[in-house]
Design goal:
2 helices, single chain, 24 strands, five-stranded antiparallel beta sheet
């Protein structure tokens, strides 16, 4: 009898250990929002799939990620198809922005950019009026940037390729100011168009921030299925440009971080004050999807000669975030 009890206990422990197994995370186009001493990770797809929309994981150390308390079957959806939010398919590239006590989630669906909001970082994110930001033409990969009380929407528009555009943005109305629309960049550099995967010009996945009165625009180039998908940057004196591409680009590329298809992510400042970039990579050398999530520390160095910051990554310190499977 005692032997049976011991075996049962061992079996129960083994089951609990298996249930707590940590596995890689498969968010593409990932973003990390820092709030209240925690990191919140979301992106295209997810570590466990689920309904159309966006799920989230949380962490305190960037390495170990967990579903928020109250998650159903280990999955917490912050925005779900049909729940007072625009879109039927193609839920891509979410971004979270906090303004005062309101959280905004901008994303792509039906190849349109969308703005939702919530009073909690964990959602649910919904719309009062269910519609896209600008339905005049297809546009994807939205990023909202605030500067001196003005908001700007960086995004991608299609014209025989994917190109980055910017427009002033009315956050309250959730609309761009069409008269302010302008294209940011054109494909000009060799690294932006390698022959490993033929495609129209592609520049996407924008992130923007300001340092010492200069504006830094980071973007990904090449088709996401290209092993040379990579991240570079440009600098301007205004949120509207003109943008000057920097010689240090790309700062993230398979030759640097050691994995194919490395790109389309977001910058964030860690709880330790370190600057990081979260991004995705191909599943392996022969397969693109599902794309794996990665985080890398970023080095920011002042260049007195140019009067600009230079950026690089600590490629030997790439973090492979792991999710606990409850």
């Amino acid at each position: 009898m005692k032997h049976i009890i011991i075996c049962s206990l061992i079996l129960m422990i083994a089951i609990q250990v298996a249930a707590q197994e940590k596995k890689e995370i498969f968010y593409a186009d990932p973003t990390i929002h820092v709030d209240g001493g925690k990191y919140y990770l979301t992106g295209t797809g997810g570590h466990r799939g689920g309904p159309s929309g966006f799920s989230v994981l949380e962490s305190k150390d960037l390495k170990n990620w967990y579903p928020p308390a109250g998650a159903t079957d280990g999955l917490h959806m912050i925005m779900t198809k049909g729940d007072q939010a625009f879109g039927e398919s193609g839920f891509w590239a979410p971004q979270i922005l906090k303004v005062d006590a309101t959280y905004y989630l901008t994303y792509t669906a039906n190849e349109q950019t969308v703005l939702t909001q919530s009073n909690s970082v964990l959602g649910p994110y919904r719309q009062k009026d269910v519609l896209p930001i600008d339905d005049s033409e297809k546009n994807i990969d939205s990023f909202i940037f605030e500067d001196d009380g003005k908001y700007y929407l960086y995004h991608v528009r299609f014209n025989n390729g994917n190109y980055l555009w910017v427009a002033e943005f009315d956050l309250e109305k959730g609309q761009i100011k069409p008269e302010t629309l302008r294209q940011c960049l054109r494909q000009t550099e060799e690294w932006e168009a390698t022959p490993n995967y033929e495609s129209s010009p592609i520049m996407e996945g924008p992130t923007v921030f300001k340092l010492k009165d200069k504006y830094y625009l980071f973007y990904s180039a090449n088709h996401f299925m290209n092993i040379d998908y990579a991240v570079g940057y440009a600098v301007a004196d205004s949120p509207n440009g003109p943008w000057i591409k920097q010689k240090g680009s790309p700062i993230i590329h398979r030759s640097i971080v050691g994995e194919n298809g490395s790109g389309h992510g977001d910058f964030f400042e860690g709880l330790d004050g370190q600057l990081y970039y979260v991004y995705h990579v191909h599943f392996n050398e022969d397969q693109v999807s599902p794309r794996r999530t990665r985080i890398v520390p970023v080095v920011k160095e002042w260049d007195a000669e140019t009067g600009l910051y230079k950026f690089s990554v600590e490629a030997d310190q790439v973090i492979v975030p792991l999710a606990t499977q409850n």
